[in-house]
């Protein structure tokens, strides 16, 4: 099966070609959507086959490379088009094609009747193709191809409703912010390639060869530079501080896009990249610390903004930024497995949440449309009490919310608790541990609060939509609810592949399957870490682990209770609160004014500089000199004035001048 | 001279077209257009055996050498050949000409015959310049090439054509004269013999002479490239020239400058090359950033594209002067890529200009709705221009950056890399303002999508964008041996660097950040 890995990206590419070239003629939505979905399903089947074969092999034989052809070869530089299968990429292709397929199906219902339906599916397939390249690429450059490719699709899909200025702006912002990150990615690639080549004559960007030669890299020093450059790339793609501002704006795109690209897959690329390069990252303690701090800071910062948003999708967007922060926190403390684990569970419950919000918006939009109202269908203040009309959406949404809040038994609990525990127990960052853990725990509390605030505002209480529209609210069709149900189920059970040892022992020694599965990928780094810290590894008692677990559950429950109190028991309090602290509310509501700050610091100065250089230097200085010369020439000869009529004359002039110079040289030599 | 004179046939075939055009009646415009197109297509077909027959080695191939002028001490030969450095530029020229002729099929209605004659003469000049191995012959072709261009701008240009043409003329004259003087000096330094550039390669010139001669050659070439701060003729020339003029200017004429560096300035003056590398790197990097910033605030689409050219050529120069395999291959590749992508961009600007007779960004908006095919093509070309992986632009840019990063130009590469951000900003912002948003200008609501002729023009360029992006190997393989030979030649002829005062490179960051270990 491994030999056929190239089929996985090929299927969606076929979809791109068919729908891109013929979609306009096909017109039939079922055919277009069917082709798009089936292609991804094909990839999913091949991925399943690969996972099965991988599991049937022994741990040492779970790595496989399939090279198709040489892409760029120049001097000692060589980049192939080739695919790498290992436990990490096999897991990722399952998530990408599995969740991707469900979202494709969902889109058939959600995008029904949209202008440019074929365009949508072309982009969505193109995205899947790029994401699979990113995940499967056997070298850094091919990963970069996917890396930029998903950025492009993100740009195209955010700007899908291109006639809206806000959509165009958001798309451009996403692309440019991502490019800032790509700048870092490229520099990281250059430095890594150059350093190993220059000093050890290992000229490669192939992942396996890099891993095999990782011991040649120093600890710290240049590796810190390399990893920080790559991390800049990750902050762009995965919307971390300081490059996160594009993601909330990206909600301008259709909702399934938000689910697929801006929650489940693309934005996790940064986490995946660190996982892929774990053997480099582990060699820089400084970078690991930066990653952990940025992750924790983003987690709490974005969560704080999420508490004050009224647009249902924006809440989820900030939630995504915050959850990605948790993943980076995990990577930064060396808990790679935990980070990838959370990536997976997050893909399930966040995709479900976004699709659920899409279902709500879909229904709201219809109802408001029938009532000829211009109210915003995404504003939670217009919703309320929807659980009656939309039971399936409500139930799946609730399950996923419980999962993200970290209530025991649901997937998010296992992965998030693992991260928090590792943040506390890891031996890498000394006394910083407590702060990292506390930040994460508080952010988790915020998460529980704003997510339940969302649920209560949307599904509970009085229905605040106008009376005329109320009767038009209805549950979405099966094509939409089916993916919701599957993802909702995964949001519950998805976490049982990674049960912590502590709990596993309680139930008769259930192993942590995921940790075991990913061991071949991260073993080297873990051994390196243990070796570096041979003397300083602290052993924590099970009592402490139980205690921390209990604490985080209690914090989550407090968050939920506050939300319940504020938005169900006495909904008048939030308004009073905002009235009491207007400045604070304004600041949070306006996202701490970060966009305005960036405009002030970067965007406006760049424009001013461009204008200044153009009108100042080009026009005044350089052209001043040139036009001065022109004036002198004109003054002397006057021949240049009659270009249009006397062109033969000028032609002769040029040639004569040339000849004169030659002859002069010959004569006066 | 036993073999078929392929190069001469190709080079002078357009001249045959010129002669034939004289016999076409003045009024039958379509016959004139058809004839010119036919000749250009024939030239392209004739040039194809060069690719198929080219052996991937460092030798000059298809050589033709006959004595030409012997006047006093001067011995000029008609000496033409192709190697890995010129092969793709020649093909680019023959490839782009039919497209250029088609591009102004309907737009130019005034003096069609003269216009076509100018275009075909231009092709002779360009091809001749790329294949000449005799410096004097090169100079002749160089001049032959400039004059038709000057007329194309001055006669068939836009509102400000006179100003633009004069500016083009002044810049060009300065460059040509300096080169001519340097050429003559070089000849006398070389002792008795011919003007063969191969002979001059082997001269051992003292560093001082090299410095002066390099400066003269480099100035002529730098104007053509154009390098900052000699670039201000370009936005005007591009803006005023008819579409075909802009396309040829961008696709081929600018490459004459970069080609000049690779073929002449660098191998002829190795010591001076080493001496001036930091300066050229500085100017290239300034060009990349400066042009991008200025492009960002342009109100005229065509001017914006012109400034983007300056930035792209900045990359080419950076890669070429990295003087290693990746940098040079990347530079050469980027010359082709720029020809394809920027040529395509000028065609695109031409399409909307022909429809609306304006190029101001603010006059547009929302065109994507009205012109979906145009929108798709424009998008692909835009992405190619900003170097998205999978398109041609990426491969060249990447090789340039990694090549210069490996060389002594590391910090310039870092700054150059930041250009990828700026390129995205100015291109996408322009695209957004022209194509996205509401279609609220009534004049835009009646626009028609591309017609068959326009799609046919764009199709080969689109194919190349993807082919060169996904499978650049054949392009790189054909040029690699010649580039390797060039690198060895220049580096081996550089005398002990200690004797040459190096222009100090600015240290962008303290060395402590990046430990450089030379072993």
Helix content, binned percent of chain A = over 70%
Q: In terms of structural class, how would the helical and strand content of chain B be classed?
A: mainly alpha
Oligomer: heterodimer
How many strands of chain A?
Answer: 2
Rg of chain B, Å, rounded? 22 Å
Task: Tell me how many strands of chain B there are.
Answer: 2
Separation, N- and C-terminal Cα atoms of chain B:
50 Å
Major β-sheet strand ordering of chain B: 1-2
How many helices of chain A? The count is: 27
Low-confidence stretches of chain A: 638-649
Question: Helix and strand succession of chain B?
Answer: HHEEHHHHHHHHHHHHHHHHH
What is the helix tally of chain B? 19
The largest beta-sheet of chain A arranges its strands as 1-2
Sum up the overall morphology of chain B in one term: globular
Briefly note the structural class of the backbone of chain A.
Answer: mainly alpha
Q: Beta-strand percentage of chain B?
A: under 5%
Question: Pair with the most extensive interface?
Answer: A-B, 79 and 90 residues
Secondary-structure map:
The complex is a heterodimer of chains A (669) and B (519).
Chain A: H1 7-26, H2 29-56, E1 64-74, E2 77-85, H3 87-110, H4 117-136, H5 140-158, H6 165-200, H7 207-212, H8 222-237, H9 246-249, H10 255-264, H11 269-276, H12 278-281, H13 285-306, H14 312-332, H15 336-370, H16 391-405, H17 411-425, H18 432-459, H19 467-470, H20 478-493, H21 501-506, H22 513-532, H23 542-569, H24 573-580, H25 582-589, H26 594-636, H27 647-667
Antiparallel strand pairs in A: 1-2
Helix pairs in contact in A: 1-2, 1-4, 2-3, 2-4, 3-4, 3-10, 3-15, 3-20, 4-5, 5-6, 6-8, 8-11, 8-13, 10-15, 13-14, 13-18, 14-15, 14-17, 14-18, 15-16, 15-17, 15-20, 15-22, 16-17, 16-18, 16-20, 17-18, 18-23, 24-25
Chain B: H1 6-22, H2 29-53, E1 61-71, E2 74-82, H3 87-103, H4 112-131, H5 135-156, H6 161-189, H7 197-201, H8 207-224, H9 233-240, H10 243-268, H11 270-296, H12 301-322, H13 325-356, H14 367-370, H15 372-385, H16 392-406, H17 410-435, H18 452-470, H19 473-493
Antiparallel strand pairs in B: 1-2
Main location (chain B): membrane
Family (chain B): Belongs to the complex I subunit 4 family.
Membrane topology (chain B): Multi-pass membrane protein
């Amino acid at each position: 099966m491994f030999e056929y890995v190239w089929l996985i990206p090929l299927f969606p590419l076929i979809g791109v070609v068919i729908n891109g070239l013929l979609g306009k003629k096909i017109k039939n939505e079922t055919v277009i959507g069917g082709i798009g979905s089936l292609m991804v399903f094909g990839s999913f089947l091949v991925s399943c086959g690969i996972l099965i074969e991988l599991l049937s092999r022994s741990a040492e034989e779970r790595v496989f490379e399939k090279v198709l052809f040489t892409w760029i070869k120049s001097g000692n530089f060589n980049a192939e088009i080739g695919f790498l299968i290992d436990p990490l990429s096999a897991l990722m292709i399952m998530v990408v094609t599995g969740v991707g397929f469900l979202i494709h199906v969902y889109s058939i219902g959600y995008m029904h009747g949209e202008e440019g339906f074929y365009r949508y599916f072309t982009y969505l397939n193109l995205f899947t193709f790029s994401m699979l390249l990113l995940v499967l690429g056997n070298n850094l450059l091919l990963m970069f191809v996917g890396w930029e490719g998903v950025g492009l699709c993100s740009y195209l899909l955010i700007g899908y409703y291109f006639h809206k200025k806000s959509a165009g702006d958001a798309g451009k912002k996403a692309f440019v912010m991502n490019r800032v990150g790509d700048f870092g990615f490229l520099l990281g690639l250059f430095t890594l390639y150059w350093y190993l080549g220059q000093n050890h004559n290992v000229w490669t960007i192939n992942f396996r060869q890099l891993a095999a030669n990782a011991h040649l890299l120093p600890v710290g020093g240049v590796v810190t530079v390399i990893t920080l450059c790559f991390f800049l790339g990750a902050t762009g793609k995965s919307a971390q501080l300081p490059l996160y501002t594009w993601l909330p704006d990206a909600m301008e795109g259709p909702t399934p896009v938000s689910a697929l690209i801006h929650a489940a897959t693309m934005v996790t690329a940064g986490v995946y990249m660190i996982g892929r390069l774990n053997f480099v990252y582990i060699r820089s303690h400084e970078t690991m610390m930066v990653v952990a701090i940025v992750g924790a800071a983003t987690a709490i910062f974005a969560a704080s903004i999420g508490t004050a948003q009224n647009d249902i999708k924006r809440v989820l967007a900030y939630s995504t930024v915050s959850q990605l922060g948790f993943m980076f926190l995990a990577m930064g403390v060396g808990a790679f497995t935990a980070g990838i684990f959370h990536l997976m569970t997050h893909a399930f419950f966040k995709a479900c949440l976004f699709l659920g919000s899409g279902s709500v918006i879909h229904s709201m939009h219809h109802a408001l449309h029938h009532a000829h109202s211009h109210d915003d269908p995404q504003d939670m203040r217009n919703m309320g009490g929807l659980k009656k009309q939309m039971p399936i959406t409500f139930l799946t949404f609730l399950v996923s919310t419980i999962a993200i809040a970290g209530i025991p038994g649901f997937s998010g609990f296992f992965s998030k608790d693992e991260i928090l525990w590792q943040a506390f127990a890891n031996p890498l960052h000394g006394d910083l541990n407590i702060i990292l853990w506390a930040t994460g725990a508080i952010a988790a509390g915020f998460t529980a609060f704003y997510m339940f605030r969302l649920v209560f505002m949307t599904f509970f209480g009085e229905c605040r939509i106008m009376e005329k529209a109320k009767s038009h609210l209805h549950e979405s069709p099966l094509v939409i609810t089916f993916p919701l149900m599957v993802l909702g189920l995964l949001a519950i059970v998805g976490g049982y592949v990674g049960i912590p040892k502590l709990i596993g022992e309680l139930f008769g020694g259930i192993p942590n399957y995921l940790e075991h599965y990913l061991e071949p990928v991260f073993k080297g780094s873990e051994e390196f870490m243990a070796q570096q810290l041979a003397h300083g590894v602290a052993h924590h008692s099970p009592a402490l682990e139980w205690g921390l677990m209990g604490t985080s559950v209690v914090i989550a429950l407090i968050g939920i209770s506050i939300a319940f109190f504020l938005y169900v028991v006495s909904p008048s309090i939030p308004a009073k609160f905002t009235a009491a602290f207007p400045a604070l509310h304004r600041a949070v509501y306006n996202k701490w004014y970060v966009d305005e700050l960036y405009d002030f610091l970067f965007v406006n100065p760049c424009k001013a500089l461009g204008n200044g250089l153009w009108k100042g230097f080009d026009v005044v200085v350089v052209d001043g000199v040139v036009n001065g010369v022109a004036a002198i020439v004109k003054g002397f000869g006057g021949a240049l004035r009659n270009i249009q009529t006397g062109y033969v004359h000028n032609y002769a002039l040029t040639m004569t001048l040339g000849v004169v110079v030659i002859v002069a040289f010959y004569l006066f030599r | 001279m036993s073999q078929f004179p392929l190069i001469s046939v190709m080079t002078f075939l357009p001249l045959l077209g010129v002669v034939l055009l004289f016999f076409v009646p003045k009024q039958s415009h379509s016959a004139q257009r058809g004839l010119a197109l036919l000749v250009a297509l024939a030239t392209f077909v004739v040039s194809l055996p060069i690719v198929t027959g080219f052996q991937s080695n460092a030798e000059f191939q298809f050589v033709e050498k006959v004595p030409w002028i012997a006047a006093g001490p001067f011995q000029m030969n008609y000496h033409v050949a192709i190697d890995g450095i010129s092969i793709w530029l020649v093909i680019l020229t023959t490839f782009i000409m039919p497209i250029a002729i088609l591009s102004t099929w309907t737009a130019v209605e005034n003096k069609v015959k003269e216009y076509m004659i100018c275009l075909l003469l231009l092709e002779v000049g360009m091809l001749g310049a790329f294949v000449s191995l005799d410096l004097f012959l090169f100079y002749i072709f160089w001049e032959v090439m400039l004059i038709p261009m000057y007329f194309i701008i001055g006669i068939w240009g836009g509102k400000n054509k006179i100003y633009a043409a004069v500016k083009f003329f002044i810049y060009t004259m300065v460059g040509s004269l300096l080169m001519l003087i340097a050429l003559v000096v070089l000849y006398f330094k070389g002792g008795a013999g011919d003007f063969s550039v191969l002979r001059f390669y082997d001269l051992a010139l003292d560093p001082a002479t090299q410095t002066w001669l390099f400066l003269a050659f480099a100035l002529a070439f730098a104007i053509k490239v154009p390098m900052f701060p000699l670039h201000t003729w370009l936005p005007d020339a591009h803006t005023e020239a008819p579409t075909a003029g802009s396309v040829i200017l961008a696709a081929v004429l600018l490459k004459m400058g970069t080609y000049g560096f690779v073929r002449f300035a660098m191998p002829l003056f190795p010591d001076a090359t080493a001496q001036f590398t930091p300066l050229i790197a500085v100017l290239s990097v300034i060009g990349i950033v400066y042009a991008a910033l200025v492009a960002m605030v342009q109100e005229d689409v065509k001017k914006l594209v012109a400034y983007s050219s300056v930035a792209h050529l900045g990359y080419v120069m950076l890669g070429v002067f990295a003087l290693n395999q990746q940098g040079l291959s990347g530079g050469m590749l980027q010359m082709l890529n720029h020809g394809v992508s920027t040529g395509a961009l000028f065609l695109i600007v031409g399409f909307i200009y022909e429809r609306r007779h304006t190029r101001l960004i603010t006059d547009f908006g929302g065109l994507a709705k009205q012109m979906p095919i145009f929108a798709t093509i424009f998008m692909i070309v835009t992405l190619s221009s900003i170097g998205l992986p999978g398109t041609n632009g990426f491969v060249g840019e990447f090789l340039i950056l990694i090549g210069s990063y490996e060389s002594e130009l590391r910090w310039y590469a870092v700054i150059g890399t930041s250009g990828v951000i700026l390129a995205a900003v100015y291109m996408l912002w322009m695209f957004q303002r022209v194509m996205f948003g509401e279609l609220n200008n009534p004049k835009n609501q009646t626009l028609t999508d591309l017609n068959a002729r326009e799609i046919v023009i764009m199709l080969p360029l689109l194919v190349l964008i993807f082919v060169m992006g996904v499978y650049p190997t054949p392009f790189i393989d054909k040029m690699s041996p010649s580039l390797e030979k060039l690198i060895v030649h220049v580096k081996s002829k550089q005398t002990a660097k200690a004797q040459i005062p190096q222009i100090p490179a600015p240290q962008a960051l303290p060395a402590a950040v990046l430990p450089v270990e030379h072993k």
